[in-house]
Design brief:
The protein contains two helices and four strands. It is of the alpha+beta class. It is elongated. The N and C termini lie far apart (about 30 Å).
């Protein structure tokens, strides 16, 4: 959870979420209407000695208005 909290310190990040295949959902930050956000999903993959396994998804949402205001 500390890593998700740390991501919120980055400029324009609205929320960070980790979701796992077994239904665990960890969210830090504040959700907003999807049309106001730029949302990116990143697979979290564990690489073992004999196999790789997807253990979850990291979702990062940026506030589009704040991002465009800086550009």
């Amino acid at each position: 959870l500390a890593q998700l909290d740390g991501m919120l310190e980055l400029r324009d990040i609205r929320y960070a979420r980790v979701s796992t295949p077994d239904g665990m959902d960890l969210l830090r930050g504040t959700e907003a209407p999807p049309e106001t956000l730029l949302i990116q999903n990143y697979p979290l993959i564990f690489h073992g000695l004999e196999r790789s396994e997807r253990i979850g998804t990291l979702t990062i949402a940026l506030d589009q208005a704040a991002l465009h205001a800086r550009l």
